[in-house]
């Protein structure tokens, strides 16, 4: 009874409707074959006869051009994943140098009386502000997260945890400075940034240009590459009821 390859999306070129297996099966590792190709598990007899995989095996079932990329996919061990995580978390240059990197940031804070409302480093007059461990600047927080995300680094909550008393009431410009430093250290600069504020009140339009100007200053960016929009939430849920404020940011980083 022949074993049959299934056509799978990640390897659309590697399939056949009636591929018969002989002793050449030993040239493919069981883990690779069973996890990537077969809908039916390989019989125990075949598994027990498996030999250690070698790309020097004679007459391999698949050509070397196919086996090598498959091998690199299958052989990602826990140690390799752990090493990659440690490298990404250590403020070092990203593992893979790409010409462009894209990051998305999101943040939301409750609005409560007795707190200042700070957006993009600008104090906005309002009867309530963001309840947060730092100054609660929802815009700067999501910009920082977008930059960190583009660099493949941990989020703002991991780098500046709210369990650390030294960040209590800290201005979010401190977080921005660190994110910009990491961006330059990794060899990137800002290509462009697009941010959206979501809040019911107060109106942002009278303050939009001062917010954008300060954002450009913190980023060291030309105003032509920094865009800021503001939306209400049509009185829906906590955002629309003036009980919270949110922001989304997308950044494009370019290799210097």
UniProtKB/TrEMBL annotation:
Pfam families linked to this entry: YgbB
Recorded catalytic activity of this chain's protein: 4-CDP-2-C-methyl-D-erythritol 2-phosphate = 2-C-methyl-D-erythritol 2,4-cyclic diphosphate + CMP
CDD domains: MECDP_synthase (cd00554)
Biological pathway: Isoprenoid biosynthesis; isopentenyl diphosphate biosynthesis via DXP pathway; isopentenyl diphosphate from 1-deoxy-D-xylulose 5-phosphate: step 4/6
Cofactor(s) recorded in Swiss-Prot or TrEMBL: a divalent metal cation
Signal peptide: none
Lineage: Eukaryota, Viridiplantae, Streptophyta, Embryophyta, Tracheophyta
InterPro entries tied to this protein: MECDP_synthase, MECDP_synthase_CS, MECDP_synthase_sf
Protein name: 2-C-methyl-D-erythritol 2,4-cyclodiphosphate synthase
UniProt KW keywords: Chloroplast, Isoprene biosynthesis, Lyase, Metal-binding, Plastid, Transit peptide
């Amino acid at each position: 009874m022949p074993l049959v390859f299934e056509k799978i999306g990640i390897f659309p070129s590697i399939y056949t409707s009636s591929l018969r297996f002989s002793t050449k099966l030993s040239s493919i590792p069981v883990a690779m074959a069973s996890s990537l190709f077969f809908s039916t598990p390989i019989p125990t007899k075949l598994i027990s006869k498996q030999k250690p995989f070698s790309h020097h095996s004679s007459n391999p079932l698949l050509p070397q051009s196919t086996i090598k990329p498959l091998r690199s996919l299958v052989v990602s061990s826990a140690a390799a994943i752990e090493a990659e995580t440690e490298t990404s978390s250590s403020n070092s240059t990203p593992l893979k140098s790409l010409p462009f990197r894209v990051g998305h940031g999101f943040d939301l804070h409750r609005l409560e009386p007795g707190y200042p409302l700070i957006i993009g480093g600008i104090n906005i007059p309002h009867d309530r502000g963001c309840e947060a461990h730092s100054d609660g600047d929802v815009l700067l927080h999501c910009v920082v997260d977008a930059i960190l995300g583009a660099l493949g680094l941990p989020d703002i909550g991991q780098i500046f945890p709210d369990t650390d008393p030294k960040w209590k009431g800290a201005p979010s410009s401190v977080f921005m400075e660190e994110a910009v430093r990491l961006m330059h250290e990794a060899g990137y600069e800002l290509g462009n940034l697009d941010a959206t504020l979501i809040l019911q009140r107060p109106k942002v339009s009278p303050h939009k240009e001062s917010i954008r100007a300060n954002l450009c200053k913190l980023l060291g960016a030309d105003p032509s590459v920094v865009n800021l929009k503001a939306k209400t939430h049509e009185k829906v849920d906590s955002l629309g009821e003036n009980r919270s404020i949110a922001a989304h940011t997308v950044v494009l980083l370019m290799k210097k």
